[in-house]
Amino acid sequence: MSEFLSQGGYAFFVWSSYGMGLALLAIEVLLLHRDRRTILARLGRLARLRKLDSEGDR
Amino acid sequence: MKITWFRYSSPATFYALAGRMIPWFAAAAAVLTLAGLYWGFFETPDRLGGTNPQKEYYRIIFLHVPAAWLSMWLYLVLAGWSAVGLIFNTRLSYMMAVATAPTGAIFTFLALWTGSFWGRTSWGTWWDWDPRLTSELILLFLYVGYMALHSAIDDVRRADRSAALLSLVGLACVPIIFWSINCPDPNECAALHQRSGLGRIDPNILWAMLVTTLGLWAYSFAAIFARARGVILTREADTQWVRDLVAAETRA
Amino acid sequence: MLRVFLCVLGRDITLAMRRRTDVLTTLFFFIIVVSLFPLGVGTEKQTLRILGPGVVWVAALLASMLALERLFAADYEDGTLEQMLLTAQPPALLVLAKVTAHWLLTGLPLVFIAPLIGLQYQLPGEALWIMMASLLIGTPVLSLIGAIGAALTLGLRGGGILLSLLILPLYIPVLVYGAGAVTVSMIDLADTQPYLSLIGAFLLLALTLSPLATAAALRIALE
């Protein structure tokens, strides 16, 4: 296990690479999730505003 | 048999289809990538000899090469959707192109980052104006240029079409740019990237690389489809099906 | 067709001549940039000879790009561009005329100033000739490719910087072979021939394809 982690002494290089990869892909996924929530929330607000607007006109 | 090519070119139909496919792609991505990396780390020799001796750090290859391949492939995909959009004038094509760009840029950056770390250990330098590295850098510029142009134009339609044209011009120039960097002296050409023939690599390494590539490819499908769904919702916000969907989501 | 070409060409040059300062500023920008490098890097002869070709070419790229914003902007703002595209003339022809005017005003002067810059960088005689030749063939390519970018970024805020971001990657082949030609000429003059041929090939390619792409971009921008 420790041999796996140290990668023959090149741990810094190997794990920095994979670490960045993991970080980027994780951030992308998180951003996509957050964007979806934001879009739905925004569209929901717009829908409610429209409904109130049309009710107010009556 | 009549093939309806345009059945899924309706954003509404595609939205539903993409939603169903994302979990499958995500699962495939996880399985394939982990399998490929496991294979790459545990089933391959620790050190390589031969004309280009490598030590344990060569394992970066299992992330570097797939990232580089995907960065180039996704640019082709981007240009492809741009071309389809410009020729057939389908809205969804442009949405797919816009959704592809960020993922492609991420892979390009990753290829540069991992390549830099591998270069430090293997060649002794963090950066070198090696043809392939430089071409990756320029590919990053092309992605960023596409995204910058698209976001700079307020009118969505003009943004889509201008950026699409830009990506095609970029595509036309990519071979020339690559070739000019690869061969800055037409009288003789040399590069640090050895002439790597896939046939001469240890089969375990090759397979691990291919499996990881497939895994990351599946990931890019999932990510791009998810982003495309977001783009569709934003752009088609005034349609009935989106209003119904939002109502259902907020009720839930 | 030739009359149309000459007509647009003449018009653009006349208009530019009325604002001579714009043209001259670009030229002086080129000279200043080129003069800055020795001050920053060192004035030793060997260093200068290595730097010279690359610096001159990068400065040529930047100067060409500065002037590109003005290629379509003035006509776009007062509606002339739209009128020009509405005529029955092929838009590619009009584009070609405007690009030629741009080159005559920014690229060609660089070709003539190049020997002076070359002397500043202690370049030998043959290198000066090759520099002029490479700039002569290469700067039209810069104008042609730049026109595509100018058309795409028509009327956008932040247009100039965005234009640079889009176009500079596409300029790289011309830069590599242009500067390369001059560098190689200092070692062996015969070796420059493939470089110049390649830039010539780029020129032919750009002459045929770029006006079409630019015209398409103009259509998209003006819809």
Helices, strands, pairings?
The complex is a heterotrimer of chains A (58), B (252) and C (223).
Chain A: H1 2-6, H2 11-57
Chain B: H1 11-42, H2 61-88, H3 91-122, H4 131-152, H5 156-182, H6 203-235, H7 240-251
Helix pairs in contact in B: 1-6, 2-3, 2-5, 2-6, 3-4, 3-6, 4-5
Chain C: H1 2-18, H2 20-41, H3 45-77, H4 80-86, H5 91-120, H6 125-152, H7 159-185, H8 192-222
Helix pairs in contact in C: 1-5, 2-3, 2-5, 3-5, 3-6, 3-7, 5-6, 5-8, 6-7, 6-8, 7-8
Instruction: Give the H and E element order of chain A.
Output: HH
Biggest sheet of chain A, open or closed, and with what strands and sense? none
Low-confidence stretches of chain C: none
Instruction: Please tell me the overall pLDDT of chain A.
Output: 86
Q: Count of helices of chain A? A: 2
Total helices of chain C: the number is 8
Mean pLDDT of chain C: 90
Strand % of chain A is under 5%
Number of domains of chain C: 1
What share of the residues of chain A lie within helices? over 70%
Order of helices and strands of chain C: HHHHHHHH
Q: Strand tally of chain A, please?
A: 0
Q: What distance lies between the first and last C-alpha atoms of chain C, to the nearest angstrom?
A: 25 Å
What is the molecular shape of chain C?
A: globular
- Unreliable sequence segments of chain A: none
